[in-house]
Every structure is written in structure tokens, then in C-alpha cells.
Design brief:
Helices cover about 50% and strands about 15% of the residues. The longest helix is centred in the middle third of the chain and has 29 residues, at about 105-135. The chain is globular, with a radius of gyration of 18 Å. The chain has eight helices and seven strands, in the order βαβαβαβαβαβαααβ. By secondary structure, it is α/β, with parallel strands linked by helices. α5 (about 155-175) links the parallel β5 (about 135-140) and β6. The protein has helices at about 15-25, 40-55, 70-80, 105-135, 155-175, 190-205, 210-220, 230-240; strands at about 5-10, 30-35, 60, 85-90, 135-140, 180-185, 250-255.
Length: about 260
């Protein structure tokens, strides 16, 4: 099935996994709405380059994913700009680590808002548009931390487990509507978010960043290599294909064997 002419809204798509997913959909002929924070000039360069390279319409909206009204407006503006919201990828996320009893409550609130609640608000706004057209794809970027836990990540793990649960509910509610909802669970992906964790480990332990990378992988992933953003993007495109049209409320895992142990 061709995705040419369909529209994709990808949250948190100005860098990392989200950017790779946005580019993959543009390469398939989708018009793309970018969203995320960053330098305005750099984002405009990204937007213009993507539109030029793939010959599609690419727009940008800086909606704050912690604000429900801005999320609803983002969906509405995507629909107004492109005439539909065919694909919604809930990817925006932040991270903070600390033991539970030392975890700042404001960090908990922010992570739950951006990593979990924003997906609900996006789906809430986009689903009626998809149902009306009898076709839609909702893809939630979860994590291995939606399936298993790690210490000092109470908010992130709670949010990602919540994303998995939400995916299941939306999936079964969307049965026979032409809309599917599925999740992708990456293991370690070398994004700016993960690089910050590596740098912090290296500084704390007095080791090189390269050694910190190796140590991080060795703790969790038998296959000692990072999942790439391109691999996650490929899974997102697959979930929009006819081959995946009977997948509903499930998770695709790419984690180098992390959760197989």
C-alpha cells in the first residue's frame, strides 16, 4: 500500500527517533507535521530540507506536549494544513533519574504529562478524524521500560507501562474501524536523551564516554549494539502497511535481547 499523499503528525520530531520517523514517512510520500523544541533556524532548515529532498509538504508546529489545549490545536492545524491526520506518532518524551524517595515531584508530573498524557490527548483529538475516514494509524513510541523496569526511573517506567496499556485499550476499541493502534519498544537507542545519560555516567564513574557506552549496553542488551533510529523508523512505516493491518494493540520490540532474558 502506498502512503503517498497521506499525512503524518510526529511529536518530538526535531531530533532523534522522531526526526528519523518523520523522514521515513516523508520518503514514503507523506506530508509531515513536525513538532518539538529546538533552535528556530535549525528547525526551519530541517523542515525545508525534508520538503525539498522528498517533494512533500512539511510543516512545523511548536506545541508544548505538556499542555492539552496546545496538543488539540496541533492536531486541528495538521488537519487544516493537509486535509487529514492519517498517521499519528506519539514520540515526545523526557527523562530524569533519581531514587523514588528523592524523585522531585515536579519531575514526576512533567514526565507523566509529556511521556504519557500527551499521547492520550493526541489520540483523543485525532481518532475522530481517522474514524471518519475509516483509515488511520496510531503509533506510540514506548520502550523496553514499558515492559520491564530499571532503578531510578520511576516516572519514565510508569509512563511507558501506561503507554503500553493505553495502546491495548485504543487497539481493541478501534477494532473494525480501519484504524490501528500499536506500540514500538526500543531498547537503547543512541539519541541525545541517552547520550546525556552516558555522559553523566562517564563523569560520575571517571571513565571515558566510550567505556560508559559499552557498560550501559552490557548491563541490559546481549547484542552489544544500539538500536538505530532508522530501524525504529522502519518499524513505524511497517505498522502503516497492509501487512500490519491486522496488528492491533500490540508491541514491536527492538532491544538486542534485553527483554528476552
Amino acid at each position: 500500500m502506498s502512503l503517498k499523499g497521506k499525512s503524518a503528525l510526529v511529536t518530538g520530531s526535531t531530533s532523534g527517533i522522531g526526526q528519523a520517523i518523520a523522514e521515513a514517512f516523508a520518503a514514503e510520500g507523506c506530508n509531515v507535521m513536525l513538532n518539538g523544541f529546538g533552535d528556530a533556524a535549525a528547525i526551519e532548515t530541517l523542515r525545508a530540507d525534508m520538503a525539498s529532498k522528498f517533494g512533500v509538504k512539511v510543516a512545523y508546529n511548536g506545541a508544548d506536549m505538556s499542555k492539552p489545549a496546545e496538543i488539540a490545536d496541533l492536531v486541528a492545524k495538521t488537519d487544516a494544513q493537509f486535509g487529514s491526520v492519517d498517521i499519528l506518532v506519539n514520540n515526545a518524551g523526557i527523562q530524569f533519574t533519581a531514587p523514588v524517595d528523592q524523585f522531585p515531584t515536579d519531575k514526576w508530573d512533567a514526565i507523566i504529562a509529556i511521556n504519557l498524557s500527551s499521547a492520550f490527548h493526541g489520540i483523543h483529538a485525532a481518532l475522530p478524524l481517522m474514524k471518519a475516514k475509516k483509515w488511520g494509524r496510531i503509533i506510540n513510541i514506548a520502550s523496553t521500560h514499558g515492559l520491564v523496569a530499571s532503578k531510578e526511573k520511576v516516572a519514565y517506567v510508569a509512563a511507558k507501562h501506561g503507554i503500553i496499556g493505553m495502546t491495548k485499550v485504543v487497539g481493541i476499541e478501534c477494532a473494525d474501524t480501519g484504524v490501528t493502534c500499536n506500540a514500538i519498544c526500543p531498547g537503547w537507542v543512541l539519541t541525545p536523551l541517552v547520550q546525556k545519560q552516558i555522559d553523566a555516567r562517564a563523569k560520575e564513574q571517571g571513565i571515558s564516554a566510550e567505556q560508559a557506552k559499552k557498560n550501559l549496553l552490557a548491563e541490559k542488551q546481549p547484542q552489544l549494539q544500539f538500536t538505530t533510529t532508522a530501524q525504529i523508523a522502519g518499524l513505524a512505516v511497517f505498522l502503516c502497511s497492509d501487512t500490519a493491518s491486522n496488528m492491533q494493540g500490540t508491541q514491536l520490540v527492538s532491544d538486542g535481547g534485553w527483554t528476552a532474558q
